[in-house]
Structures are given as C-alpha cells and as structure tokens.
Amino acid sequence: MTQLNYPQIIKNNGHSIAITTLVIVVLSMALSLIQPLQYRSRVEFLIIQKQSLTMDAYTAARASEKLASSLSTIIRTKSFFDKVMAGNFGIRRSEFPDNEKDLRKYWQKNTLTSIAPESSLLQVNVYHKDKKEANKISLAIASILVNDVNEYYGGGSDIIIKVVNEPLASDYPVRPNIILNSLAGLVIGVVISLGWIVYQENKKENYQEDKNIISEINNQNLYQVINN
After folding, report:
1. CA-to-CA distance for 180 and 38, rounded, in angstroms?
2. Spatial contact of 101 and 75, defined as CB atoms under 8 Å apart
3. Could you tell me the domains of the chain?
4. For residue 16, how far is the Cα from the chain centroid?
C-alpha cells in the first residue's frame, strides 16, 4: 500500500481548504449576528454555615458548600422565578414567554449559576437584551437569597448569605460571543475540509490499488491461457 504524502496533499488542496473554511466561518458569524444581543449582570454570594458546639470548622465549610450547590439549583426553578417577579423591582413580565414550558427553558438558559471549586462562593449570571433589566433581575435574586433564604433552607439563623460582589452589568453585549463562534467555525472548517480531502485521496488511492490488482490478476490469467 502506497503511503500518502499528507503535507503535499494539503499543499495541493490549499485553495479548497481555504474556501471551505471561509464559508463555515462566515456562516458561524451570520448565525451569531441573527441572534439577539444580550448583556450580562453578575452577582456573587458567600454562603456561611455558622459553627456550633456540635459542628467543627471543616463540617461547617462542607455544609456551606452543599447549601451553595442547592441554592444554585433552586435559583433556576420556576418557583424562584415567580418570587423574582413578585418582588418590587419593576421587572417587565412581558419580556418572558407566557407558555410554561418555554418560560422554564428561557429562565434556565438565561440564569446561570456556578460555584467556585472548594468554596461556598456562589456566582449568578443573568442574561438579558436590556442591560437595566438584567441588573434588576440580579438585584431581585440577591434580595431573595439574603432575606428569604429560610423559605428554601431550614437552617434558620445558622445560615448567613452575604453579597460579596454587587450586581454589575457588562458594558457591552456578551451573547452571542461572535469572536468565539468565529474561531469555532475556523477550527470546524479546517477539520472538515482536511478530513474530506484525506478521505477522497485515500479512496482514490484504494481504487487505484484495486485496479492494479485486478489488472495483474487478468495478466496472470492471460499468461496461463497462452501457455496452455
């Protein structure tokens, strides 16, 4: 089997690779641009489980992490959304879908939570096409967690939730990430075009080898017939 010269194949098909990659990059940018631009409002909390006579520092820290994890899930529920809307923050309900299924999907997609590793630092990112609305939602979430956490956790006064970073909205839209999407399109374009070209060259090489084998077999058969 003949070993293919991949660098030479790439060099010979450089034009095709460039065109294919460019098309995919342009498509990635176009798909990004047709999506609504969204700002991000970020707020961060520190979850503290008070120590007691029956709880050492390590256990208290682990309990804080567990509570932070639970709250990160609760924030993205429909029940929490209803409480956000019920607050006196002037959030426009008309900005959200009326259908229950669509509403839950929208809320979960645009309200993201994360927890810093090995800590009880909870970060909440709210995405909205209106910067002010994003900040209002973040403020509502902060108010609920600080003042009404007992509705979601029965720890009473043993739990303290502090806002360590006030809600802050981005100066520019962060969604969609056009640069990141374009880079992803570039990588995908290169991989697809290279894969297709290598596949075609291998297919062509295998076909030629099969053709040579068949030709050789036919020649051998013809030789045997002539000798007989």
Report:
1. 15
2. no
3. 1-35+176-201 (no CATH), 39-169 (3.30.70.1130)
4. 30
Q: In what order do the strands lie in the sheet with 159-169?
A: 111-115, 121-128, 39-49, 159-169
| 197 vs 222 pLDDT, higher one | 197
Positions of E strands within 129-207: 159-169
Alpha-carbon dihedral of residues 19, 21, 26, 27, nearest 10 degrees? 110
Q: How confident is the prediction for the chain on average, in pLDDT?
A: 82
pTM of the predicted model, to two decimals?
0.70
Distance of CA 45 to the CA centre of its chain: 23
Q: Counting Cβ atoms within 10 Å, is residue 228 exposed (0-12), middle (13-18) or buried (19+)?
A: exposed
The residues that bridge with 43 in the sheet, in sequence order, are: 124
Intra-chain end-to-end CA distance of the chain, in Å: 33
Find, among 187, 177, 185, the residue nearest to 35 by Cα.
177
Report the C-alpha gap between 103 and 79 in whole angstroms: 12
Cis peptide before 117 (omega within 30 of 0): no
Residue type for 90, please?
G
> Is residue 221 scored above 60 in pLDDT?
no
Sequence-distant (≥ 6) Cβ neighbours of residue 84 within 8 angstroms: 91, 137, 140, 141, 144
